[in-house]
Amino acid sequence: DQRIFLLDMSSIDYSEHPHRRYNPLQGTWVLCSPHRAKRPWQGQQEEIPKDTRPEYDPDDYLGPGNSRSGGAAVNPKYTDTFVFDNDFQALLSDTPSGSVGSIENDDLIVATAVTGRCRVVCFSPKLNVTVAEMDVAGLRKVVDTWCDEYEMLSKLDYVQYVQIFENKGAMNGCSNPHPHGQIWSTGYIPENPSRELSNLEGYYKRKGSHMLEDYVKLELEAKDRVVCENDSFLAVVPFWAVWPFETMIVSKKRIPSLLQFNDQERTDLADIYRRVTCRYDNLFLTEFPYSMGIHQAPVIDMSSPHPYAHFHMTFYPPLLRSATVRKFMVGFELLCEAQRDLTAEQAAKRLADLSEVHFRQQK
């Protein structure tokens, strides 16, 4: 029994003793050192930014009716979501083709030109809210926008993959506090989703069942890594989580991409998106920083749903012990493999015990 094995692990206690955990999606390992969680911290502490944002700021270059950075464009006076091409795109649709060297020939200098398109999605016209403070109706509009953008970008002949993501907080590299995310579409399948798709396919061919459907069943039975759930989605701290409070939202049944979502599933995604991020903010009573990304089917062949892809969104938050102490990926983790102290089970319990009423809205 897989679950019993995880709770027993022969003679060692995986809540106290060092061990490695395997990530079947990525095919990687993480070193877990739970005995180190008690060590004192005398390293860097971050300052908690004071929230003095108004609902509207004429200098906010993502605000409705405002000029964007550099003054190249003026935003419409939007009332819910607003999408536009990034003014500083990392990929361009008209990059000329070309390459240098060949992997097959073991060349040491290999490069190839790439195409793509980068979009920005403003979640709300209000500057002083985050996903955690938005309501389900507002976030449903965000989900609908994601669906529309995924479908639109999938029809571009130079696009093979659509990556939807959100960076929240200056600590996580967010350059503007206005609630927004990004969508980068690429003319190739990037390394991480490519590796996941390969592992999902391999698992199915070996076992005759889908990896993340099996994983959902395992987690619902074990319960000790579950954060929250609704009819369509499960939020867990994955057994193989790397970041202290990393979570994954995964559809309970295999849905290849946003295109296959029905009306209820769109609403349920908005619901659990709010609930997870609200718990994050309530953990340390701060605007909890994170990077969130959605992995789903590539858009190479849209004639039928992808046979192995399984929609999931993962949150990678850097905070470790408090609103001022973050995790750093340095030393052993850069040179060898990922490492964590707090176990996934401990992190999940802390998140699961929190309120889903935002701390700013609690009386």
Quickly describe the structure:
With 363 residues, the protein is α+β, with helices and mostly antiparallel strands. Helix content is 25%, strand content 18%. The strands form three sheets. A nine-stranded antiparallel β-sheet has the order 3-6-8-7-12-13-11-10-9, with helices on both faces. A three-stranded mixed β-sheet has the order 1-2-14.
Supply the key terms.
363 residues; 3-stranded mixed sheet; 7 helices
Q: How would you portray this structure in words?
A:
It contains seven helices and 14 strands. With 363 residues, the chain is α+β, with helices and mostly antiparallel strands. Residues 1-5 have low confidence and may be disordered.
Give Rg in angstroms. 21 Å
Biggest sheet overview: 9 strands, antiparallel
What fraction of the residues are assigned to beta strands by DSSP? Answer: 15-25%
The largest sheet has its strands arranged as 3-6-8-7-12-13-11-10-9
Average of the residue pLDDT scores:
92
Shape: globular
How many H/I helical runs? 7
Order of helices and strands: HEEEEEEHEEHHEEEHEEHEH
Helix content: 10-25%
How many β-strands, per DSSP?
14
SS content category? alpha+beta
Poorly predicted sequence stretches spanning 5 or more consecutive residues: 1-5
Terminus-to-terminus distance: 45 Å
